[in-house]
Design brief:
single chain, 110 residues, mainly alpha, 5 helices, 0% strand
């Protein structure tokens, strides 16, 4: 459900591209969990590699519950948009001095 399901695969692929993880990697899980262990280049990268997987899991869980107990299930784009929105909101609250609009990941991860 959280890694290899149809919606989960699409969401992970979307954020893999954004963060700059190779799309041909054998297993996103290894990247997700190794990123928590590996030393990031700066405090912003450390923040991204720590929080993004958690927010992806959280939004996939919310989507699963909406599909299971509600009358709707979100599509990949909606889960990605919701996750991106939360990332931006939390980032702005954590680092108010930094301009981040969600599309400029390269500057944060350098």
């Amino acid at each position: 459900i959280f890694v290899s399901g149809e919606i989960a695969s699409g969401v992970w692929y979307f954020f893999q591209k954004r963060i700059g993880i190779s799309n041909d990697s054998p297993c996103i899980r290894s990247h997700c969990f190794s990123s928590w262990i590996l030393r990031a280049r700066n405090k912003f990268a450390r923040w991204v590699f720590t929080l993004v997987p958690l927010l992806i899991f959280w939004n996939l869980w919310k989507n699963r519950n909406a599909a299971r107990f509600g009358s709707r299930s979100l599509m990949v784009k909606q889960v990605c948009d919701s996750t991106s929105e939360k990332i931006c909101l939390i980032f702005r609250a954590t680092f108010p001095q930094v301009q981040f609009h969600g599309g400029c990941w390269d500057k944060l991860l350098c």
